[in-house]
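Example 3.2
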Amino acid sequence: PFSPSELVARVDALHRRVVLAQKSKESNFKEELKSGEFVLNLRNRALLKNGKMIDLTQVEFQIMEYFFSNPGVALDRLYILTHVWGESYVGEDKRLRMKIEDEPSNPKYIVTVWGLGYKWEA
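Structure, written as tokens:
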């Protein structure tokens, strides 16, 4: 006996490891992505801000990886979440700014693009 959500989570984790292993074999693979005062370590699945670790969930990490891969590009909110969760996404996404921003009510990194979504500015 097991829950379907547990099975999906385990398959997703295995898929992430396989993709990371494949990427690491590529000659242009970067283990770390840097953006301003942030460093995203793809191997350790860690985000550092000014050298200080920020605890992220797997989904939050994937969102940050997507932002780092598209700096300064306005990304549709639904497209971001679909990219991370897949076509069946129906959840909420409000805690990431609380972890990343110095002042979440006045964000300077995850910037809202009215009528479209968000973009990463670092």
